[in-house]
Design brief:
This protein has 254 residues and is an alpha/beta fold. Helices cover 42% and strands 15% of the residues. The radius of gyration is 17 Å and the shape is globular. The structure holds NADPH dihydro-nicotinamide-adenine-dinucleotide phosphate and the ligand C[C@H](O)[C@@H]1OC(=O)[C@H](O)[C@@H]1O. The ligand C[C@H](O)[C@@H]1OC(=O)[C@H](O)[C@@H]1O is lined by residues 95, 144-146, 151, 154, 161, 189, 194-195, 198.
Length: 254
C-alpha cells in the first residue's frame, strides 16, 4: 500500500543521510518530493534522479536553513513546481562535536541557528502554506535521542534537539485547529556523514553498538518508515508525539 499517494512532501537536508532516505521513502510511497540542501549539489541531484526513477516528480532547492528567507523560498519554489504542500519534514542539522569549556561562540551560534531557528522558520513557512490551502497537513521534525539525554561533546547540540522536540509539541497545539499534525522522530545513533569522524574511533563505535539492544547502529533507511508513517493518514490521530527510533538505546541503563 502506498501511504503518501498524490501528496507533496518537502524535506530539509535531503541530499544525504536521514533526509535523503526519507525523500526516497516518500517517493516510494507515491509522493512528489522537494528537497532543500546547502552544499552537496551532486548528492542533491542524484537524490532527485532516484525520486524520478521511482516515477515521481522531484525538485532540489539550495539554501541555508539558518536564514529565515530560505524557508519562504523553499516553500514557494515547491508550490510553484507541485501546486501545494502536504508534508514538511524538518531534518537539516549539524553536530560539530566540541568540548564544553572552550566551545567557540560561533560554533554555538551556528548550531543553534541551523538546527533550531532553521526548524522554526521551515515549520512556520510550511504551516502558513497549509493553512492557506485549508486542507490540513503533517509536519515531522527530526529531533534526537539527544533531546532526552546529554553528551559531553554536544552541549551546544542537545539543547537544539530538545528545542525541536518542544517546537513540535507547541506547534501541535497551535495548528491542531487547522488539521495540521506535528510530531517528531528521535533517532538514536544512525550512521551518516554527521558522525563519520566521531565513530571512526573503533572503541567509541563498539561502545555505542553495545548500548543498543538491537545490536547494531541505525542506517538512514531505519528512519524512512517512521517518518512516512507519521506523515501519512495512518497517523491521522497522532499529534504532539515523539517517536524514539533508536534500536532501544534510550531504555538501556544496565
Ligand atoms: N545521524 C544520527 O545519529 C542522528 C541524526 N539526527 C539528526 O538527523 C538530521 C539529519 O542528520 P544526518 O542525516 O545524520 O546527517 P547528514 O550530515 O548526513 O545530513 C545533513 C543534511 O542536512 C543538510 N544541511 C546541513 N546544514 C544545512 C543548512 N545550514 N541548510 C540546509 N541544509 C543543511 C545537509 O546538506 P548538504 O549535504 O548540502 O551539506 C544534509 O542534507 C539532523 O537534524 C541530525 O541532528 C538525530 C539523531 C541522530
Ligand atoms: C551526531 C551524533 O552521533 C548523533 O546525533 C544525535 O543526535 C545523537 O546524539 C547521535 O549519537
Amino acid at each position: 500500500m502506498k501511504l503518501l499517494q498524490g501528496k507533496t512532501v518537502l524535506i530539509t537536508g535531503g541530499s544525504t543521510g536521514i533526509g535523503r532516505a526519507a525523500a526516497i521513502g516518500a517517493a516510494r510511497h507515491g509522493a512528489d518530493v522537494a528537497i532543500n540542501y546547502v552544499s552537496s549539489d551532486d548528492k542533491a541531484h542524484s537524490c532527485i534522479a532516484e525520486i524520478e526513477a521511482l516515477g515521481q516528480r522531484g525538485l532540489a532547492v539550495k539554501g541555508d536553513v539558518a536564514l529565515p528567507e530560505t524557508a519562504s523560498d523553499f516553500v514557494s519554489r515547491a508550490v510553484e513546481a507541485f501546486g501545494r504542500v502536504d508534508v514538511m519534514v524538518s531534518n537539516a542539522g549539524i553536530c560539530p562535536f566540541h568540548s564544553f569549556l572552550d566551545m567557540p561562540v560561533e560554533t554555538v551560534e551556528r548550531t543553534f541557528r541551523v538546527n533550531l531557528h532553521g526548524a522554526y522558520f521551515m515549520v512556520q513557512a510550511a504551516a502558513n502554506q497549509m493553512v492557506k490551502q485549508g486542507s490540513g497537513g503533517a509536519i515531522v521534525a527530526v529531533s534526537s535521542i539527544s533531546a532526552l539525554v546529554g553528551g559531553e561533546f554536544q552541549t551546544h547540540y542537545t539543547p537544539t534537539k530538545a528545542g525541536v522536540h518542544s517546537l513540535m509539541q507547541s506547534a501541535a497545539i497551535a495548528l491542531g485547529k487547522h488539521g495540521i499534525r506535528c510530531n517528531s522522530v528521535l533517532p538514536g545513533t544512525i550512521l551518516t556523514e554527521i558522525n563519520k569522524d566521531d565513530l571512526a574511533d573503533a572503541e567509541k563505535r563498539r561502545y555505542m553498538e553495545e548500548r543498543t539492544p538491537l545490536g547494531r547502529l541505525g542506517q538512514p533507511e531505519d528512519l524512512a518508515g517512521p517518518i512516512v508513517f507519521l506523515a501519512s493518514d495512518m497517523a491521522a490521530y497522532v499529534t504532539g508525539a515523539a517517536l524514539l527510533v533508536d534500536g532501544g538505546m534510550f531504555v538501556n541503563l544496565q
